[in-house]
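Two proteins, back to back. First:
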Amino acid sequence: MASIKVYGGAGEIGGNKIHLKTEDTSLFLDFGRSFGGEKQYYDNPYLTPRDPEQLQELGLLPDISSLYKNDEEPEIDGVMITHPHLDHWGYCCYLDNDIPLYCGETTKDMILNYEYSGSCAPSKKYYIGNLTKSKGRKVYRDFQTFRTGDKIEFDDLSIEPIHVDHSIPGAYAYIIHTPKETIAYTGDYRLHGPRSDLTEDFIYRAKSAEIDTLITEATNIVGADTRTEKDVRKDLTQIIGETNGLVITNFNNRDIDRLRTAYKAAKINGRKLVISTKQAFLLQEITKDKHLDIFDITNDNILVFSKNRKRTQAWEQEIHEKTKTYNGKELNKIQEQTVLVASYYDMNEIMKINPQPGSTFISSQSEAFDEEGEIQHKRLLNWCEHMGLPQYQAHASGHIGPCQLKNTIKQIQPKKLIPVHTERPNQLKKYISNLKCKIKTPKQTKK
């Protein structure tokens, strides 16, 4: 039987690092950054990890020396990245350069886009990619890309990547065929998003594959939200239509479904969507993918908001050369014609716009789930109060809900279930205890 060890994602949301080992093959399923674990020791940006040895000592990275940049021969055949959220790939920067990264084409593009506009690595030594004005784009890792329908072959196992719906493009689940068992790993997925058909396809294929072990996320066992992306679009359209000043909305800048939703809601109301230079840089990359239905930054209904900087980085310069950008004073004059995508970290710039009476703030992301998030949320409320901005909430989760998850497990009928990416695995264990599968609650492994 294959050995499965969970080095990250056990009893925590994100940070997935799952080691799969057969007689002849050794792989990691994701190699994500543990944000919750880091917060116990670090205070970004004032105190941050500097090298993998520190993270190993703290139990945040696997204590396997051959994984990292040293003189040892890597014992790992590769990392199978499910999607481009940092909590699934963010620690890949520490891995030995000879370890290939397997991922979907969109995931590769989004990882490199992240690196080009601000690396996840603590220093140049650990860069996955880099973009400079003098040398252009550089990639320092071996990316092996795939799409649904491909099969990745290793010595004694094969992997079928199958698309799923999530709050970021390019998300995949895996069906893994080993000599003695078949394993499925969901990554992050949902059934209430705009492409639920992708997830349904995975469930159908997993059921047909007769899965022995299912490794699934269970993020939303607590605090599940039943709203869909269609609900969010309806809410945004109505709120924008009832607002006679500036509309500000915030969401994860890599949530392309939400960006598309905001664009459509703004357009219906005769407004232009204002995005950041970083969002524009991302769109410039992924609009090349014909499989993604997304607008171009030169679209007449798109404006690009640029912060006043004395120096611009290479990625910012690309955007300035491609399209006109607007500063706060310029947006002040067209408030009733725009919907601005911004966040808590943009509040200094929003003060320059000086939202007129009747303006509105729409929070379109998950509510705070820890003390640090609560503190930031209170600060955001203080900013909104100072500027006279009422706050609405309009969000749909990127993760599967409890009832849908239980039904998915029931359909796939695995012999064994390993829940990851959840803070409450025992709650899930009791919730699905009437299903005919053995439930193994994982414990975090260090060695």
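And the second protein:
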Amino acid sequence: MANNENVVVKKCPKCGKEYRGHPAISREDNITPICPLCGTREALEGLGLEQSEIDKIIAQIPNVEDK
């Protein structure tokens, strides 16, 4: 079983939600750490997908932190 004492909770500057684990790097400036879901959203936006399609894909990503 993993030791959760060293888990750092960070706040995403894009969506304002808290997350744990490794951040994504924003494609907007290639510097700012953002939550993995915002990173995925930025990547999908870069593909030129419509917002409704992006929302469907994001909704299918399981929230690993809840497990």
